[in-house]
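Exercise (ungraded).
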Amino acid sequence: MDPFMQAAIDEAQRGLDEGGIPIGSVLVHQGRIIGRGHNRRVQQGSATLHGEMDALENAGRLPASVYRDSVIYTTLSPCSMCSGAILLYGIPKVVVGENQTFMGEEELLRSRGVQVEVLQDERCVALMRTFIERSPELWNEDIGE
Amino acid sequence: MDPFMQAAIDEAQRGLDEGGIPIGSVLVHQGRIIGRGHNRRVQQGSATLHGEMDALENAGRLPASVYRDSVIYTTLSPCSMCSGAILLYGIPKVVVGENQTFMGEEELLRSRGVQVEVLQDERCVALMRTFIERSPELWNEDIGE
């Protein structure tokens, strides 16, 4: 198992344990995790802290050169907001846990030159399937539906 | 003067007074401001709280129906992250103070059916021109350059 996707899954599980939405992410620079996070909608009443956004926020202020030499891992296909953040900072590669329960803006990312690798990890799928079945309203709120 | 753009400019000015990047935004639902904010990169060491994101965050958790009946005002053309958030939540209209100092993802927004109105407000332009001249490194950091 990729240790960085494992770290993202650990973040997703932490979010679930807190009563939140189980999506996690890590930002990796030159083989080292420099930011990690998970969705904070429930925990902080946040409309913007999706997993990827939380990882970027926790990484703190960084020069463009760091982002451009980084990879972001996320347990779920990134929505338009998180994809937009990836484009803003010029992160060249995204590793996605799964895109079966939600298809984000992978095509937009690819069209702008971002490498998108989808693992279809069964643990990521199971986390989201179970969550969506139990909390469909919360999930719809998180994706603006 | 549009009172909502005035409120966004007031937010931008507040950010400048705090030593931050002068970009402000308000989210307006049925003629009432339900969220307001400004760029927090300097003040909170934030990599994600652009003006629009801060307004969305301060508006708190909302059902999709509210976003879909709202207008977001921003003093500067929205970057890919903020445009992605607008798309995520299905906000149908964006009023932009100016796009002369920075051109955001207006074409992407329009291609997805979002109405984008650009005021080219001279106060918005002046706020950014002065700021970029004084703090080019900070500005580049904020737009990932």
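Further reading is listed at the end of the chapter. For now, observe: The first strand of chain B starts at residue 24 and ends at 29. The CA atoms of residues 97 and 119 of chain B lie 5 Å apart.
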